[in-house]
Amino acid sequence: MHEVIGMPGRTQLVPAFGVYQEVAPNKSAVEYYRRVHEEFKRLEIVTRTLILEEAIRYLKEKYPAQNYRVVVRGLGGKKYYIFMRGDKRSRESYQEIPFWVRVEDGEVFIPASYVRRNKKLAGLVVGYRMEAIRLAMNKVLKREEEEEKKEEKVEEKKEEVKVEEVKKRAEKEIKKVEEAKKEDAKKVEVPREVRVRRVKNPIVRCPRCGQMGHVAKKWVKNKRGERYEYFYVYHKIPIGNGKYKTKWCYLGRNIPSKLLAGVA
Ligand SMILES: [Zn+2]
Predict the structure, then answer these.
(1) How far is the centre of ligand 1, averaged over its atoms, from the C-alpha of 229 (Å)?
(2) How many Å lie between the centroid of ligand 1 and the Cα of residue 132?
(3) N or C, fewer C-beta in 10 Å, the chain?
(4) Residue 252 alpha carbon to ligand 1 centre in Å
(5) pLDDT band at 20, cuts 50/70/90?
(6) What is the mean pLDDT of residues 206-234?
């Protein structure tokens, strides 16, 4: 028998993939949905919740007569999304296998009582529900990426405007200085470094370690080639002998707007 979660006499859960493996029509289906599941588990909780909601919306729309619904329940201190089907009061409800998704880490389960009653059906439900999750995941991740792209474009525009402003300011400074030069060469100070670079890669006080550093962007690509960007504060810390060590403090997917407030 499978590993069981929960107390005897109360709801007990069995890891869904163990059951699926035993009854799935072929190995490649199991492998396929395992990969989908691994990706699902790697996501942040917020994204996972969006996907579960999208999956239930999809099932409701595609099969309006089946009365799909989702129930959120706690068990052993963890939150679960339970995919349910059919009417509680109808006799067929005994045939409807609930599919439990633990929101915290994305693990999936079937109640042990249903596995005992009809293992075959319980296993097949895993494939159906994982397919709904797969479709929902594609949709949600695509949407997130598009939103990020949009935000990026807005940011780029803002940055361009800022750079232009700084350039204009710098040109004015230079003009002033040149005029002053003509008047009295001795009094002239060399203009300070143009601050364009600071705008492109702003210097901020790091919310993580409190030191000053540059905001920097790194990105990774997932298996499907989708790009995810992350922001860091990049520190150059002197360690003597004119040498430096670098330190990266993680900021998250977006730069906190507070951080940029007040930066030229
Ligand atoms: Zn830092």
Answers:
(1) 18
(2) 41
(3) N
(4) 13
(5) very high
(6) 77
